[in-house]
């Protein structure tokens, strides 16, 4: 489902004709070598494509407009090898509308002390030219990423790679279509929002469908197709029968298999990449989609519970941003449930009624059936597991009435001390940065939801860069957060982002 597109990034070197053809031939040769090395490094998730040196207003404008219309181009990487008078860039940049990285680097690592002369200085003056170029972005008030460092260094290459993933998130955001099955849960505030504004800001299309339309699709799934998928479940997952009747257990699992197949067909046919459901509005569905939604999330669909379309779109976005990542640890919808407040062991137990993505699972995954204790349907089958350990990022997109705010929290995932044999849901457990007390206080002051879009494979920098490209407010809760500073930041932002 998560089809990866072979996006490319254009590498555009800026210069001018003041220093003659020999100098320009060196500029072209150097930038070609850099592009080759970047592509060979294994540190970039997407290909870099070398473009001829930009030395005139006309060529700059033409190239940036070609980047706008090239469907495979997800962004442009620029670097001023010599000096490129920045007035030449104004019109081109004003017309450019994709992510842009200003890579502030230099062809040579070391000053050639024995041979350096003025020709060398003129040819290798990124320290000078990149400042002139950077100035015009600031003057134009344009968003761009600046990365400084030597192009052969792996950590710098990885930073470029991280930015590429953010850029693909920016480009792909406008392709996210969220299917709403039922409305938001009654009386709940934080899962609401302005869907028109979301389309203006993020490009998301958010449409409602009656639950019985998708339920009818589920009803058309053949017994043969369901039996094949149930066999796959029984092969892949451990069955926790727990003294339930074996035949009835299998029948309940088969209901989820029918939902998985029917939902996926309905989403595919109508071209949606994210879905929300609501336990209180299930129409003719026999169970709340549990196992089925978990499997769809694993395939790359976004999901939000109780009609939460903002989180559903964010989960999809974050799955796109991590696609094709080697050793990815997972991305999921998550919900803050309950605390452990024992000193030294503080943290938040994360789960949902059923819907946690198995991509975050650590070790074995089992199928369990239990009453939901909410709603009026059959005991749903669900996948249960615990999640991986390590650093991760939890995000919440909220609508403040006059603007969107993205809250980004660095968290550290841990194992709980003991098994929880009576808890029938998949879980994660994390301690937010800088600690539970300050992290939770800051989250609540910022108005963050109980639902999050969560990933082990993205950083707060990537999420903040995405928000900046979207032109929305982002606040970070991390190791440097203090409440006094954070409250001031919220206050200042309320002035900055006022419409
Ligand atoms: Mn929920």
Strand % is 15-25%
List the uncertain runs. Answer: none
- Estimate percent helicity: 25-40%
Q: What separation lies between the terminal Cα atoms?
A: 38 Å
Give an account of the 3D structure:
With 499 residues, the chain is α/β, with parallel strands linked by helices. The chain folds into two domains: 8-173, Rossmann fold; 177-497, no CATH class. 39% of the residues lie in helices and 21% in strands. The chain contains 15 helices and 19 strands. It has helices at 20-40, 57-69, 90-95, 118-123, 126-140, 154-173, 195-202, 211-219, 223-236, 246-270, 291-299, 309-321, 436-446, 460-470, 483-496; strands spanning 8-14, 47-50, 73-80, 100-104, 145-148, 177-181, 205-209, 238-239, 274-276, 302-304, 331-340, 347-351, 366-369, 381-384, 390-399, 404-413, 428-432, 451-455, 473-477. The strands form four sheets. It has a six-stranded antiparallel beta barrel with strand order 11-12-17-16-15-18. It has a five-stranded parallel β-sheet with strand order 2-1-3-4-5, with helices on both faces. β3 (73-80), α3 (90-95) and β4 form a beta-alpha-beta unit. α8 packs across α10. The two termini are 38 Å apart. The mean pLDDT is 96. Manganese (II) ion (MN) is lined by residues 305-306, 335, 352, 451.
């Amino acid at each position: 489902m998560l089809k990866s597109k072979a996006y490319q990034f254009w590498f555009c070197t800026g210069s001018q004709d003041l220093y003659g053809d020999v100098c320009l031939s060196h500029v072209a040769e150097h930038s070609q070598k850099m592009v080759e090395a970047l592509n060979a490094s294994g540190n970039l998730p997407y290909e870099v494509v070398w473009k001829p040196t930009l030395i005139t207003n006309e060529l700059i404008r033409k190239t940036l407009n070609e980047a706008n219309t090239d469907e495979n181009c997800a962004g442009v990487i620029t670097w001023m090898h010599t000096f490129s008078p920045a007035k030449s860039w104004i019109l081109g940049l004003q017309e450019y509308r994709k992510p842009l990285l200003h890579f502030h680097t230099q062809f040579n690592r070391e000053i050639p002390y024995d041979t350096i002369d003025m020709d060398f200085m003129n040819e290798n003056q990124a320290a000078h030219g990149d400042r002139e170029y950077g100035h015009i972005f600031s003057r134009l008030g344009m968003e761009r990423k600046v990365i400084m460092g030597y192009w052969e260094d792996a950590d710098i290459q990885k930073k470029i790679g991280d930015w590429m993933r953010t850029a693909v998130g920016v480009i792909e955001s406008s392709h996210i279509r969220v299917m709403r099955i039922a409305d938001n849960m009654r009386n709940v505030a934080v899962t609401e929002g302005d869907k028109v504004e979301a389309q203006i800001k993020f490009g998301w299309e958010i449409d409602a469908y009656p639950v019985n339309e998708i339920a009818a699709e589920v009803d058309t799934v053949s017994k043969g197709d369901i039996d094949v998928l149930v066999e796959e479940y029984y092969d892949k997952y451990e069955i926790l029968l727990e003294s339930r009747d074996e035949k009835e257990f299998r029948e309940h699992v088969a209901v989820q298999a029918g939902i998985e197949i029917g939902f996926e067909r309905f989403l595919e046919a109508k071209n949606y990449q994210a879905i929300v459901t609501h336990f209180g509005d299930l129409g003719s569905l026999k169970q709340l989609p549990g196992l089925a939604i978990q499997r769809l999330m694993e395939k790359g669909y976004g999901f939000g519970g109780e009609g939460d379309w903002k989180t559903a779109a964010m989960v999809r976005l974050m799955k796109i941003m991590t696609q094709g990542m080697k050793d990815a640890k997972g991305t999921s919808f998550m919900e803050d449930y309950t605390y452990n407040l024992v000193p030294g062991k503080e943290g938040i137990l994360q789960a949902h009624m059923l819907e946690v993505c198995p991509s975050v699972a650590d070790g074995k995954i089992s199928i369990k059936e239990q009453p939901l204790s909410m709603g009026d349907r059959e005991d749903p089958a669900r996948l249960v597991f615990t999640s991986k350990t390590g650093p991760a990022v939890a995000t919440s997109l909220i609508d403040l009435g006059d603007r969107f705010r993205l809250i980004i929290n660095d968290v550290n995932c841990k194992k709980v001390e003991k098994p929880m044999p009576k808890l029938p849901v998949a879980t994660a457990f994390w301690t937010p940065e800088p600690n539970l007390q300050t992290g939770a206080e800051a989250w609540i002051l910022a108005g963050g939801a109980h639902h999050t879009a969560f990933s082990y494979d993205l950083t707060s920098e990537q999420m903040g860069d995405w928000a900046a490209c979207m032109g929305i407010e982002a606040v970070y809760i991390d190791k440097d957060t203090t409440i006094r500073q954070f409250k001031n930041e919220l206050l200042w932002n309320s002035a900055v982002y006022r419409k």
